């Protein structure tokens, strides 16, 4: 029975081939196996044995065609020793054979944006050449429906004068990238298209930031503009090669912190019209016959008929931060950046006669309210349960447009701040881009290393397939608590969420014995009958009477068909 979990060993092709090993007197690295072929966007694996005689931290990195690619693996060696690791690396959108090598580094990199760097000899204590990797064209997208539109909120701010990964909750599976890296931009576009996303909503809400005129914008804003232009270029490039991509829409702001004069926003809109509408019309997302332009206004000052921006070439929509803070925002046609409630609020269409449909709703894998991520009103990812609940609300709302918050913010406030917005850790944060399963992020109290892998990419696809009615037969399940790897009492409630067809019952087993069953959440689990010697267990949670096409896998893109609905969960007693 296939279950949610990691099956890394089965992906490795072990080999006795003698690989070229280069090392120093205190550091050597060798291969123990690797994948030989992989589809675009999916995971390839490399097994490595790294040895060192000097106690310090080391970083192991993969190089694809002589440039760094993929998340690092950090080894914390406290004494002379060897470590065997398996590296999981996503395949870029580059069909063909590629040269691979793996290096062990004993010093810091000269830039926070490692992806794309050549191998630097002065920080390399050992490297090994690997056999070629074949990347195949695995183009596939199951979504057929074109309603509702689905947009993904997106950040292009990993640039020299903006964000440097210091406060990120983990390491992206593509590695610590710059928003100017074309290989990364290509893979992001492929992943989002594969999941069923129609357009990315690129965040420009900080571009004015107390400036009186658009011409006064700083270097931070200009870098975000340049990174956005690169996205347009990359999407054009991909389409010319025969790949499909999402469209693009922009999200400028009147106020996202400091408030700017409306004249500055008008100047920004005029600049967008001149530079993007003229050059990239085919890539701009259209809404109600014109290209879509979303304007952020935290003060909620306007109505659709009273807004002062002159932009007849565009379909203008205004956005507030959170709609639950006041019902007038949604009634005035404002879309939401992210709502701070489990059931997000839909914005009704501005129609003149009933019945009116809903125009837009924003869903997210986790949310905070005015008190930030540590407030009791905030709700974390809960291993996908929050996202499934929000998807269900969107299904019931039947909107024209669904926004997803969000792909890649990876920034927050340093520990010791008065409040924490943006991102706090892997649970209290709303990023969805694939994240390394092992690498540590910014240290927070009580957090552990490692992220969610492909879980939220796969859940995104599953949710979109549910939204559009492309798949109404699959049951999606997530375990809200306990958290994987946590310590629990010998009797505890297991809380789960499902959407889609309801299971006839859910059963939990431990070491082959049934330790809980219920027709509804929660399932009361009791392992006392297993005896006091059982100190840990991988619980097998199985939903009966239902099937799924989405396993929520961590280490590959979902491709199941009519599989049992089952999740594995490791706990300590």
What does this structure look like?
With 573 residues, the protein is of the alpha/beta class. Helices cover 14% and strands 31% of the residues. It has 6 helices and 27 strands. The strands form 5 sheets. Strands 11, 12, 13, 14, 15, 16, 17, 18, 19 and 20 form a 10-stranded mixed β-sheet that branches. Strands 1, 3, 5, 6, 7, 9 and 10 form a 7-stranded mixed β-sheet that branches. The chain has a 4-stranded antiparallel β-sheet with strand order 24-23-26-27, with no helix packed on it. Strand 16, helix 4 and strand 17 form a beta-alpha-beta unit. The longest helix is centred in the middle third of the chain and has 22 residues, at 219-240. The two termini are 25 Å apart.
Query: What percentage of the residues does DSSP assign to strands (E)?
Result: 25-35%
* Sequence stretches where pLDDT stays below 50 over 5 or more residues: 1-20
Class by alpha and beta content: alpha/beta
Q: Which shape, going by the Cα principal axes?
A: globular
| Mean pLDDT metric | 92
| Total beta-strand segments | 27
Major sheet attributes: 10 strands, mixed
Q: What is Rg?
A: 24 Å
* Tally of helical runs: 6
Q: Give the helix proportion (percent range).
A: 10-25%
Distance between the termini: 25 Å
């Amino acid at each position: 029975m296939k279950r949610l979990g990691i099956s890394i060993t089965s992906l490795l092709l072990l080999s006795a081939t003698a690989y070229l090993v280069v090392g120093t007197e205190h550091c050597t690295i060798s291969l123990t196996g690797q994948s030989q072929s992989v589809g675009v966007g999916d995971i390839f694996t490399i097994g490595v044995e790294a040895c060192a005689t000097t106690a310090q931290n080391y970083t192991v990195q993969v190089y694809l065609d002589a440039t760094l690619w993929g998340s690092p693996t950090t080894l914390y060696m406290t004494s002379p020793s060897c470590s065997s690791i398996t590296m999981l690396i996503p395949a870029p959108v580059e069909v063909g054979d590629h040269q691979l090598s793996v290096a062990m580094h004993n010093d810091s990199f000269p830039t926070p944006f490692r992806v794309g760097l050549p191998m630097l000899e002065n920080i390399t204590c050992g490297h090994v050449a690997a056999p070629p990797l074949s990347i195949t064209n695995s183009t596939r997208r199951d979504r057929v429906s074109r309603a509702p539109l689905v947009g993904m909120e997106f950040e292009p701010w990993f640039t020299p004068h903006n964000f440097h990964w210091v406060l990120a909750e983990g390491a992206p599976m593509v590695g610590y990238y710059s928003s100017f890296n074309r290989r990364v931009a290509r893979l992001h576009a492929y992943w989002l298209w594969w999941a069923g996303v129609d357009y990315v909503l690129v965040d420009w809400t900080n571009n004015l930031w107390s400036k009186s005129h658009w011409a006064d914008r700083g270097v931070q804003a200009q870098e975000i503009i340049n990174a956005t232009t690169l996205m347009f270029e990359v999407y054009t490039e991909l389409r010319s090669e025969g790949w499909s991509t999402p469209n693009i829409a922009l999200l400028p702001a009147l106020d996202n912190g400091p408030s700017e004069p409306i004249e500055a926003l008008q100047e920004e809109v005029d600049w967008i019209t001149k530079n993007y509408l003229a050059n990239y019309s085919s890539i701009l997302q259209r809404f109600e016959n014109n290209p879509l332009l979303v304007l952020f206004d935290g003060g909620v000052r306007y109505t659709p008929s009273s807004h002062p921006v002159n932009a007849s070439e565009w379909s203008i929509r205004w956005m507030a931060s959170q709609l639950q803070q006041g019902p007038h925002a949604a009634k005035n046609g404002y879309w939401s950046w992210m709502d701070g409630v489990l059931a997000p609020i839909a914005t009704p269409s501005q129609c003149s006669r009933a019945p009116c449909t809903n125009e837009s709703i924003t869903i997210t894998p986790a949310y905070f309210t005015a008190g930030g991520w540590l407030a009791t009103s905030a709700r974390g990812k809960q291993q996908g349960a929050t996202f499934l609940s929000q998807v269900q609300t969107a299904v019931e709302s039947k909107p024209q447009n669904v926004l997803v918050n969000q792909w890649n913010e990876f920034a927050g406030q340093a520990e010791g701040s008065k409040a924490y917005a943006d991102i706090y850790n892997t649970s209290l944060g709303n990023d969805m881009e694939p994240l390394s399963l092992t690498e540590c992020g910014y240290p927070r109290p009580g957090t552990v290393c490692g992220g969610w892998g492909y879980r939220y990419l796969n859940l995104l696809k599953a949710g979109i397939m549910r939204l559009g009615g492309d798949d109404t037969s699959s049951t999606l399940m997530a375990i809200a608590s306990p958290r994987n790897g946590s310590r629990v009492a010998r009797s505890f409630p297991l809380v789960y969420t499902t959407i889609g067809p309801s299971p006839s019952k859910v059963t939990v087993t431990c070491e082959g014995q049934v330790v809980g069953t219920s027709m509804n959440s929660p399932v009361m689990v009791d392992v006392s009958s297993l005896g006091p010697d059982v100190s840990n267990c991988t619980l097998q949670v199985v939903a009966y009477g239902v099937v799924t096409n989405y396993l929520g896998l961590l280490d590959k893109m979902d491709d199941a068909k009519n599989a049992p609905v089952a999740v594995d969960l490791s706990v300590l007693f």
